[in-house]
Amino acid sequence: NRLRYISNTNTTASEMxxxxxxxxxxxxxxxxxxxxxxAMMELxxxxxxxxxxxxxxxxxxxxxMNQIENI
Length: 71
Description:
The protein is mostly helical. It contains two helices and no strands.
């Protein structure tokens, strides 16, 4: 059994479109908030994926430690 993780998430500011947001007027600020909301959702998904993988790795480590202890 092998754990595989393929990261296809690019969470850089430029990739998420938040590197050049403007807030000089009300319309730009509203547009910027929409972009930021979307970026935050994508970032949350990426963090959830990393957390799930970390949990799996923790389980593997704990299982291995139990096997070593039982030997």
